[in-house]
Design brief:
alpha+beta; eight-stranded antiparallel β-sheet; 6 helices; 15 strands; 16% helix
Length: 310
């Protein structure tokens, strides 16, 4: 599958902003088996400075500063990406990851790039409550693929998708009690369960195909950035799985960044210098099969939040 992605982020302020400094993690690149054919990032007003770098986790990050007074800031990230070779696009994980789960837990000699995804991070702290929730799926000697698929299905069944139930900073232990939240929360729950059992798991941010192929259901999380989990399966490498939609993160998924938890990979963050008291955030995402004769249309979601000002 080849997809064309258009991700627009727009802030409208109630007073002029003199300086905007931003950090963008919407730069699709060659991650998780996908191949980026082309990509671009446009910031309006035009930045005085704009550059890219790789962060600690290997994600591409754009940094910019706008010093022209403005009441609207718009960031548009576009990309064309081939996802046909993504892990999970072939055999299901429970059919290939047949080792007992205890054999793929981290231990002495584990590579540092894997080990750091098995310990606590700011938003995902291991706990006995998470062990207790995960344990029914991870019985002694059970193949890791079977156990992972069952745990993912249980989270999907037990937790209700409710965008009003949580905030970005809602603690994981609270989500575990609420049994409600959004894709970010469900990814954190699965990561916390796996790490609490000694497995390595990372947070993955990206996109879903906006419109499903004929005969397939529309996925929760389309029309916005989405989150799922990458699980390290020993010699099998990393495998993506999505508890929000109870399925592997295969060819209909596009990775933009990965890290320990959401705090490592927010799509956009920054600082403004302004007397503005409020701002309106409008985000639109479109992920569609590449078709040069078709015009893509965006679906918008809108929210209000206070700017970070100084």
């Amino acid at each position: 599958m080849i997809y064309r992605i258009v991700h627009r982020t727009r802030y409208d302020y109630d007073a002029p902003v003199t300086v905007s400094v931003g950090e963008v993690r919407q730069l699709v690149t060659d991650l998780d088996g996908q191949r980026c054919i082309d990509r671009d990032l446009t910031v309006r007003p035009e930045p005085e400075h704009q550059r890219e770098r790789a962060d600690y986790f290997g994600n591409r990050v754009a940094l910019f500063s706008v010093r022209e007074p403005h009441t609207t800031l718009e960031v548009v990230a576009t990309a064309t990406v081939d996802t046909s070779a993504r892990a999970g696009s072939g055999a299901p994980v429970d059919g290939v990851a047949t080792e007992p789960w205890e054999r793929v837990t981290v231990g002495p000699g584990t590579d540092l790039e894997v080990l750091e995804y098995a310990i606590d991070s700011p938003l995902v702290v291991r706990s006995q409550d998470l062990v207790d929730y995960a344990r029914p799926s991870f019985s002694t000697g059970r193949p890791v693929g079977e156990a992972l698929v069952e745990l993912c299905s249980r989270i999907h069944a037990d937790f209700a998708f409710d965008p009003d139930a949580t905030e970005v900073d809602t603690p994981l232990e609270e989500v575990l009690v609420l049994r409600r939240g959004v894709c970010q929360d469900f990814a954190h729950v699965l990561i916390g369960c796996l790490r609490s059992l000694g497995l390595a798991a990372r947070y993955v941010s990206g996109y879903l195909e906006t419109d499903p192929p004929p005969g397939q259901e529309r996925l929760v999380g389309a029309d916005r950035t989405h989150a799922w989990v990458g699980v390290h399966l020993g010699a099998g490498g990393w495998f993506g799985i999505d508890p929000t939609n109870d399925q592997p993160a295969a060819a209909r998924y596009v990775t933009s960044a990965h890290g320990r938890d959401y705090g490592d990979v927010p799509p956009f963050k920054g600082v403004i210098f302004s007397e503005a008291e409020t701002s309106t955030l409008t985000v639109s995402v479109d992920v569609a099969p590449e078709d040069p004769d078709a015009e893509a249309s965006d679906t918008e979601t809108s929210d209000s939040e206070s700017p970070t000002s100084k």
